[in-house]
Specification:
Elements (H helix, E strand, L loop, with lengths): L3 H15 L4 E6 L21 E7 L2 E6 L3 E6 L5 E5 L9 E7 L4 E5 L6 E6 L24 H8 L6 H5 L10 H11 L12 H20 L38 E5 L2 E5 L13
Antiparallel strand pairs: 1-6, 2-3, 3-4, 4-8, 5-7, 6-7, 9-10
The protein binds zinc ion.
The site of zinc ion has 7 residues, from loops.
């Protein structure tokens, strides 16, 4: 699934192709993805300048001068690319935006879990109402030791599930939280409320580090993720514990456990488990 660094990479790559362009036509080749695509045929989406391309959590927001905006979610395996109109349409490129410079943006969504929604923004740069429930961005200054410490105090669930909850902090998926917990020396099975303030500081710093690093090198490719030019992310080569057998620090056997339906990896030596740890 494209995670925050992948979506941020796509966001940065799309921006120069889209900013100040106008959409002249939108083709939909399927009735609906996660939501119906009929709203994309509204006349008000055409011939308006694109004034902003940005990311919030794992959503891309493409804003037009008239306050209309597209919210795009890539779902499990979606991708976007900008190519010339002569480029043959891929089987699952279900939505095609034609731009006034003759290029096209295509949304490839093989499993149809992604979506394109149209929304109205109350003012330029505003957060779409649909995304109001989201927690802070992990790379923002608001996500820090004090915030994490405060929010975890009554949380008896695992720290890993807490971090993966988008209402607490957005876009820190399984791979990134696994790596950040390892770097912090914190077991994923620890109760969120058991973390000290110092550990909250360490964990927030490591989450920022692992995300920033991944953005720098273009995201992680596990399955289908590709950047808009078709290049694949390189971060998978830098993973230290996710999907590994031996700890790179102490050579212990890495433990694997299902936690909230996701594979968790941890080193029993480097990420010790105090007595209150979840079993
Ligand atoms: Zn270790």
């Amino acid at each position: 699934m494209p995670e925050l660094p992948e979506v941020e990479t796509i966001n940065r790559a799309l921006r120069p192709h889209l900013l100040e362009r106008k959409i002249t036509k939108i083709d939909t080749h399927i009735v609906s993805l996660r939501y119906p695509l009929a709203p994309l045929h509204a006349q008000e989406l055409l011939n308006e300048s694109i004034i902003s391309v940005r990311r919030r959590a794992r959503y891309l927001i493409i804003e037009l001068a008239n306050g209309k905006a597209f919210i795009i979610h890539l779902g499990m395996s979606g991708s976007l690319r900008v190519v010339s109109p002569e480029t043959e349409r891929l089987k699952h490129e279900h939505v095609v935006w034609h731009l006034d410079n003759g290029m096209t943006m295509r949304f490839d969504c093989p499993r149809r879990f992604g979506f394109v929604k149209v929304c109205s923004l109350p003012e330029a740069g505003a957060e779409p109402g649909e995304l109001r429930e989201l927690g802070p961005e992990p790379l923002s200054s608001g996500f820090n030791a004090a915030y994490l410490y405060r929010m975890t105090r009554r949380r008896t669930g695992s720290i890993k599930s807490f971090i993966m909850n988008n209402a607490m902090v957005v876009g820190v998926g399984n791979i990134y939280v696994t790596e950040a917990l390892f770097e912090s020396g914190i077991s994923p099975l620890r109760r969120a409320m058991s973390l000290t303030r110092k550990q909250c500081g360490k964990l927030t710093a490591e989450i920022k580090k692992v995300l920033a690093r991944s953005i720098e090198i273009g995201g992680t490719t596990i399955a289908n993720y590709k950047n808009v030019d078709g290049s694949e992310g390189q971060f998978i080569r830098h993973l230290k514990i996710y999907g590994k057998n031996r700890c790179p620090v102490c050579a212990s056997q890495i433990q694997q456990k299902r936690l909230a339906g996701r594979n968790s990896y941890y080193c029993p030596q480097c990420q010790p488990m105090p007595n209150d740890t979840l079993k």
